[in-house]
Amino acid sequence: MNLESPKVSVQKSAQELFDLLTDVKNFGTLMPENIAKFEVIGEDAFIFGLKGMPEIKLKMKEKVAPNKVVLGAASDKLPFTLVANIESVSDSSSEVKLDFEGDFNPMMAMMIKGPISKFIETLASNMHKL
Protein backbone atom coordinates (compact mmCIF):
# COMPACT_ATOMS: atom_id res chain seq x y z
CA MET A 1 0.00 0.00 0.00
CA ASN A 2 1.50 3.33 -1.08
CA LEU A 3 0.13 6.69 0.05
CA GLU A 4 1.43 10.20 -0.58
CA SER A 5 0.86 13.48 1.16
CA PRO A 6 0.37 16.65 -0.84
CA LYS A 7 3.64 18.53 -1.46
CA VAL A 8 3.91 21.45 0.98
CA SER A 9 6.13 24.52 0.94
CA VAL A 10 8.14 25.35 4.04
CA GLN A 11 9.98 28.61 4.70
CA LYS A 12 13.20 26.82 5.62
CA SER A 13 16.15 25.70 3.55
CA ALA A 14 16.27 22.02 2.62
CA GLN A 15 19.18 21.53 5.05
CA GLU A 16 17.30 23.25 7.92
CA LEU A 17 14.23 21.11 7.31
CA PHE A 18 16.37 17.97 7.04
CA ASP A 19 18.05 18.80 10.37
CA LEU A 20 14.67 19.34 12.04
CA LEU A 21 13.24 16.07 10.67
CA THR A 22 16.26 14.02 11.75
CA ASP A 23 15.65 15.05 15.36
CA VAL A 24 12.81 12.72 16.40
CA LYS A 25 11.68 15.08 19.19
CA ASN A 26 10.38 17.44 16.51
CA PHE A 27 7.79 14.92 15.33
CA GLY A 28 5.77 15.80 18.43
CA THR A 29 5.18 19.22 16.84
CA LEU A 30 3.89 17.61 13.64
CA MET A 31 1.40 15.25 15.26
CA PRO A 32 -2.35 15.75 14.86
CA GLU A 33 -4.41 17.26 17.67
CA ASN A 34 -6.14 13.92 18.38
CA ILE A 35 -2.87 12.27 19.39
CA ALA A 36 -3.26 10.03 22.42
CA LYS A 37 0.47 9.51 23.05
CA PHE A 38 3.85 10.79 21.88
CA GLU A 39 7.01 9.65 23.61
CA VAL A 40 10.64 9.85 22.50
CA ILE A 41 12.30 6.55 23.44
CA GLY A 42 15.82 7.13 22.17
CA GLU A 43 17.95 9.32 19.97
CA ASP A 44 16.38 7.87 16.83
CA ALA A 45 13.00 6.46 17.88
CA PHE A 46 9.60 7.45 19.23
CA ILE A 47 6.23 5.92 20.02
CA PHE A 48 2.97 7.57 19.06
CA GLY A 49 -0.64 6.62 19.37
CA LEU A 50 -3.71 8.03 17.72
CA LYS A 51 -7.10 7.61 19.35
CA GLY A 52 -8.64 4.30 18.29
CA MET A 53 -5.42 2.95 16.75
CA PRO A 54 -2.65 0.83 18.28
CA GLU A 55 0.54 2.57 19.39
CA ILE A 56 3.28 2.57 16.76
CA LYS A 57 7.02 2.69 17.34
CA LEU A 58 8.96 4.51 14.61
CA LYS A 59 12.71 4.35 14.19
CA MET A 60 15.05 6.42 12.01
CA LYS A 61 16.15 4.09 9.21
CA GLU A 62 18.01 6.29 6.73
CA LYS A 63 19.18 9.89 6.35
CA VAL A 64 20.34 11.35 3.04
CA ALA A 65 21.21 15.00 3.63
CA PRO A 66 19.50 17.25 2.74
CA ASN A 67 16.85 15.47 0.67
CA LYS A 68 15.53 12.36 2.37
CA VAL A 69 14.59 11.13 5.84
CA VAL A 70 13.27 7.58 6.22
CA LEU A 71 11.41 6.39 9.30
CA GLY A 72 10.30 2.81 9.62
CA ALA A 73 8.22 0.70 11.94
CA ALA A 74 10.34 -0.86 14.67
CA SER A 75 8.02 -3.88 14.71
CA ASP A 76 7.70 -6.50 11.97
CA LYS A 77 3.96 -6.87 12.71
CA LEU A 78 3.22 -3.65 10.79
CA PRO A 79 6.01 -3.35 8.22
CA PHE A 80 6.04 0.15 6.74
CA THR A 81 8.21 3.16 6.03
CA LEU A 82 7.49 6.87 6.07
CA VAL A 83 9.76 8.84 3.76
CA ALA A 84 10.12 12.63 3.80
CA ASN A 85 11.32 13.78 0.39
CA ILE A 86 12.72 17.31 0.61
CA GLU A 87 13.31 19.52 -2.43
CA SER A 88 15.20 22.79 -2.25
CA VAL A 89 13.30 25.69 -3.83
CA SER A 90 15.60 28.54 -2.75
CA ASP A 91 18.09 29.32 0.02
CA SER A 92 15.23 29.95 2.43
CA SER A 93 12.45 27.66 1.24
CA SER A 94 11.89 24.05 0.35
CA GLU A 95 9.11 21.61 -0.44
CA VAL A 96 8.43 18.35 1.30
CA LYS A 97 6.27 15.37 0.42
CA LEU A 98 5.66 12.36 2.65
CA ASP A 99 5.44 8.87 1.16
CA PHE A 100 4.01 5.99 3.17
CA GLU A 101 4.76 2.45 2.02
CA GLY A 102 3.37 -0.53 3.86
CA ASP A 103 3.03 -4.23 3.29
CA PHE A 104 -0.39 -5.17 4.67
CA ASN A 105 -2.98 -7.81 3.92
CA PRO A 106 -5.99 -6.45 1.97
CA MET A 107 -8.27 -6.37 5.03
CA MET A 108 -5.77 -4.45 7.13
CA ALA A 109 -5.00 -2.08 4.22
CA MET A 110 -8.69 -1.31 3.83
CA MET A 111 -9.05 -0.54 7.56
CA ILE A 112 -6.03 1.73 7.90
CA LYS A 113 -5.94 3.51 4.53
CA GLY A 114 -8.24 6.36 5.61
CA PRO A 115 -6.65 7.07 9.01
CA ILE A 116 -3.09 6.80 7.64
CA SER A 117 -3.87 9.09 4.66
CA LYS A 118 -5.28 11.70 7.03
CA PHE A 119 -2.30 11.25 9.37
CA ILE A 120 0.39 11.86 6.73
CA GLU A 121 -1.56 14.84 5.35
CA THR A 122 -1.63 16.32 8.86
CA LEU A 123 2.11 15.72 9.33
CA ALA A 124 2.82 17.47 6.04
CA SER A 125 0.48 20.40 6.69
CA ASN A 126 2.10 20.92 10.14
CA MET A 127 5.63 21.22 8.67
CA HIS A 128 5.41 25.02 8.92
CA LYS A 129 5.27 24.64 12.74
CA LEU A 130 8.85 23.38 12.90
From TrEMBL:
Gene3D superfamilies named among the record's database cross-references: 3.30.530.20
InterPro entries named in the record: START-like_dom_sf
Name used for this protein in its record: SRPBCC family protein
Species of the source: Flavobacterium pygoscelis
